[in-house]
Amino acid sequence: MLPLTNEFDVQGRGDAARDARDRVVCMLQDWRLPLSEEILQAVRLCTSELVANAVEHGGGTCRVRASWTGSHLRVDVIDTSEAVPNADRPAWDAIRGRGMLLVDALATTWGWEPRGDGKTVYALFAQDAPAEPGAQPAPAPALAAG
């Protein structure tokens, strides 16, 4: 049954990024997706970075949505900030600002979409193993505006 989707709210506590990444990876393991351990590790790190950014810049809370289309996993982090994420290189001596560079390096692709009350930042991951027999890929999930 495709697509598979699950979402949850994240409260801006000190362990919010860790809790969110663990919850997403556990969800993916429960779904038994054809994703290697390497891809799961990339999902774990990217989810952590996206949630940390949303909590820091987006008012302290966010919503996380994971969607499997049959061939791609999309992790969305929805926050209330209008600040545009970027993967520009920070100054060589900066102690922060490299999170989106990691997302850029590890995800198949990433991007952001404005919303009426903030934005959605997403990371997309392609499967690296054949899908189960009979599984039909679905289009990537579209987000409702606003």
TrEMBL record:
GO MF annotation list: ATP binding
Residue ranges annotated for the Histidine kinase/HSP90-like ATPase domain, each copy included: 17-122
CDD domains noted in UniProt: HATPase_RsbW-like (cd16936)
UniProt xrefs under Pfam families: HATPase_c_2
Gene3D superfamilies noted in UniProt: Histidine kinase-like ATPase, C-terminal domain
Keywords tagged on the record: ATP-binding, Kinase, Nucleotide-binding, Serine/threonine-protein kinase, Transferase
Protein name listed in UniProt: ATP-binding protein
